[in-house]
Design brief:
Blueprint: E1 4-21, E2 27-46, E3 51-56, H1 74-86, E4 92-98, H2 108-123, H3 133-140, H4 144-149, E5 152-156, E6 161-164, E7 171-177, H5 184-198, H6 209-217, H7 220-226, E8 228-229, H8 232-238, H9 241-251, E9 256-259, E10 266-270, H10 273-284, E11 291-297, E12 303-304
Parallel strand pairs: 1-8, 3-4
Antiparallel strand pairs: 1-2, 1-12, 2-4, 2-5, 5-6, 7-10, 7-11, 9-10
Amino acid sequence: MTPVTVRVPAKVNLQLGVGPLRDDGYHDLVNVFHAVSLFDEVTALPADEPVVTVEAAPDAQVAIEDVPVDGDNLALRAARLLAERLGVEPNVELRIRKAIPVAGGMAGGSADAAGALLACARLWKADRILPALPELAAEIGSDVPFALLGDTAIGLGRGERLTPVETSGTFHWVFATADGGLSTPAVYGECDRLREAQGEDVPWPRPSEALMKALAAGDAHALGAALTNDLQPAAVMLRPSLRRTLDTGRELGAIGALVSGSGPTTAFLAASPEHAADLAAALGQTGVARQVVRADGPVPGATVV
C-alpha cells in the first residue's frame, strides 16, 4: 500500500459562547470556528501493529514531548475506531509532523485525529466510509468534525453540529504561543467557578450578528471588534501572563485580540499581510511569547497531499 499523507489545519474560535453547565457536565456552546494556515501532517503507512510517532515540523517550536504516543493519542484512537467500523485490523503506523501548538487552544490533537481518519480511510481503500467520517469524528471529540470541514463554520451543541458560514476574502492573523499548555477541563472548571462566585445568570449563547456580518463582508476591522471568548477570563485567571500578551498585541496595533479556545495561545488580527508581518516582528521582540507565527484564514479542512 502507498502511504497517505493528510494536511490538517489549526483553528481559532472567532466566537466561543459558553452556556450554563448542564446536568451531564457539559455546556451548550456557540463556536464560530475559523481554520487557519498553520498545519499538521498525518501520514498513514501499513504496519504490523498500531503505532504513532511524532516530530516537530521544521522551525516549529512545539512541545512534542507532551504529545502521547500510546492509546491516549487522539489520532491513534481515530484509526482504531475507523478500523472497528470497517471490520479490519488497525495495523497502521501514523507519523505526525506538528506545527500546531500542543495544548494551545488551536485543536491540534483534534486536527491529527481528523487527519488520521481521512488518511486511514484512503490507505485502506475505504472510500465508502468517507461520508460517515464526520459522525465518527464527533465520537472522538467535539473539535474533530471541524478539522475535517475547515473554512469557517458555526458549531452548536458541544461544537460538533456544524453549519458553514459565508465568508468573504482572507483574514490575516498573528499567533503568540506560550510555554506549556492549559488543560481544557481546567479552564471550563474555572469558568464555572468564576460565574458561580460572581452570581452570574448565564444566558444561552447565540451566534453574534455583528460577527456574521463582518465575515460576510470581509471586513477585518469589524471582525476584530466582534471577537469574543467566554473562556478568556478563566484562561487569564489560570495563566495571568496572558493578560500582558493580549495588552502588548493591542498596543502594537492589532485590530482584534483574544485567547484562542481554552488557551494559552493568543490570536491577533491584522488589517493586511503587511500589517501582520510588522505586528509579528514587533511582538516577537517583546519576549511575551514562546513563538510568534503568522497565518491566514479561512483554509480548507483535512486534505490529502
